[in-house]
Structure formats: C-alpha cells, structure tokens
Amino acid sequence: MHFNSTILTIPGLGGSGPQHWQSIWEKQYNFTRVEQSDWETPVCADWIENINIAVNRYDPAGVILVSHSLACAAVAYWAQKFNVKIKGALLAAPADSEAESFPTVTNGFSPMPLLKLPFPSIVVSSTNDFYVTAERAKLFADSWGSAFINVGNAGHINVSSGYGEWDEGLTFLKQVEI
What we know:
The protein has a single domain (about 5-175), classed as Alpha/Beta hydrolase fold, catalytic domain (Rossmann fold). The chain has five helices and six strands. It has helices spanning about 20-30, 45-55, 70-80, 135-145, 165-175, and strands at about 5-10, 30-35, 65-70, 90, 120-125, 145-150. The chain has a six-stranded parallel sheet with strand order 2-1-3-4-5-6, with helices on both faces. Strand 5 (about 120-125), helix 4 (about 135-145) and strand 6 form a beta-alpha-beta unit. This is Alpha/beta hydrolase family protein. InterPro entries: AB_hydrolase_fold (IPR029058), RBBP9/YdeN (IPR010662). It comes from Mucilaginibacter gotjawali.
C-alpha cells in the first residue's frame, strides 16, 4: 500500500509500544510519530503544541493525522486552538476524558471538545471499548463532523484487544487520503 500524504501518528496515553498498529505502520510505511515529552502524565496544552509543531514542519494541506485514544481529544483541542486545514484525520478509539473509566493522570483533556473539525475525518470505534461507550463515540464523530465507523467488538483497538497489525485500519486511512 502506498500513501501520497504526510502521515503523522499520535499515540495516546502511555505512547504506542512496538507491537501497536501505529508503531507497525510507522516502520512499514515510514510514517512519523508526533513525540510528546510526557506519555504517562500528559498535559493537553503541551500535546497540542507538539502536534502544531509537527504539522507545521510540512505543508499542512498534505498532512493526515492518525490518532489513537487520548490523542483523538488532543487533535480536537489542537483543531479548536489553531484551526489548521490539514488533509484529514483518522481518529481511532477515542477515549472519553469525561468517563469514570478515564485515567486521572491527565491534565486539561476534559471536557471533551465537541466543535466541528476544520478538515475531513473518520472516527473508528467499537461496541466494547472500556474507555468510551459506542454512544459517546458516535456523539464525538457527529460533533466533529466525522464519518463514523463502528467495527464491532474490537475493545480499545490496541494490542491487548488483539490489534497489532490492523489492515482494516489502513483501508480507513486510505479513505481519509482520497
């Protein structure tokens, strides 16, 4: 599979380990990770600054963001603050920062931003994600103006849910690139 866009991956809380689909994609397709100074106790303002710096290293019109979990909220906050027109975003398994199950080690990610994104996007979620209900994921997609794809019982779409390689995700990413 070939991509004509600049693909930036943004892992969620804890970063994505070597077996996570984001890390696998980075190696297979030479995607670039948006690094954060603190993956374990993240501050939203720091994360969105780092996203902005990373996006502006390239022509934003050719950039696609691939975020997972908490990074989906970070992308929405980044879009709200900077209003940069990128090519698009794939927002996988958005974590609900307002949910009781959400880790308390984060700062500034709540409330969930619910403004329309200034670029095309797809939200991919499951019916049994510990960090977000299917209803809340659909609310986020609707609020952000995103296409919504429910992949069924896929947990948090991460390694512990059986998603190292995620070929179906690459298909969704190609849909963003069109």
